[in-house]
Every structure is written in C-alpha cells, then in structure tokens.
Amino acid sequence: MVVCVCNAIRETEVRAAARQGARSACQAYRALGREPKCGQCTRFARDIIEAERSAA
C-alpha cells in the first residue's frame, strides 16, 4: 500500500525504516532519502511505525 503519494513511499518501506530505528515519520522519510511534502501522510506513517515498534 502507498503511504505517501507525494514521495511514492510504500508501507513496506516505512516498516523497514522503523525496524532500522526510525521513531517518527520524519526520521523514516530521511532514512529513505525523502522528506514530507504536504504532510497528510505523516499520521498514517507514524501509526505504522508505532505498530512495527510494538511488534518488535
């Protein structure tokens, strides 16, 4: 599933960034070499990161 349309970031990429230590959407985006643009996706990305960290 696409999390960020502006940057074409997929859920699997956000999950991988969380497993590598990203604690926020901004950190995950930086790890992917991108940054939030419109910001509508950051809450969804944050939820994915929280879920991934809880599962660890």
From TrEMBL:
The keyword Ion transport does not apply. Residues 2-50 form the BFD-like [2Fe-2S]-binding domain. One of its GO terms (molecular function) is metal ion binding. Signal peptide: none annotated. Coiled coil: none annotated. The keyword Disulfide bond does not apply. It comes from the Bacteria. It holds the Pfam family Fer2_BFD. InterPro entries: BFD-associated_ferredoxin (IPR052371), BFD-like_2Fe2S-bd_dom (IPR007419), BFD-like_2Fe2S-bd_dom_sf (IPR041854). Keywords: 2Fe-2S, Electron transport, Iron, Iron-sulfur, Metal-binding, Transport. Belongs to the Bfd family. This is Bacterioferritin-associated ferredoxin. It comes from Stakelama marina.
